[in-house]
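Example record for the data management plan.
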Amino acid sequence: MTMIGFFGFVAGFMVLLILLMTGRLIMGPTGADRAVALDAINTLVIGIMIVLAVHFESVVMVDVAIVYAGLSFVSTMFIARYIEERGK
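Corresponding structural encoding:
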């Protein structure tokens, strides 16, 4: 298998996982399940960004992935705080 085929396989597998997590995001019985699914989707998107950065040999895409990871973390914290406050 060539490297291009390998990167395509990895990116395709991650997209499949994102689709599965989207099902959990839509059908999750609780808000916490939906928050975890959204966080998992964000993590997979970051992974796809890194795979594409390696494939295209682009350092800028790694920087974008790092910024996206930071914003994803902050948004997850806000969602968790909202769920916690709503439960009181």
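Summary line stored alongside the record: The longest helix spans residues 59-87.
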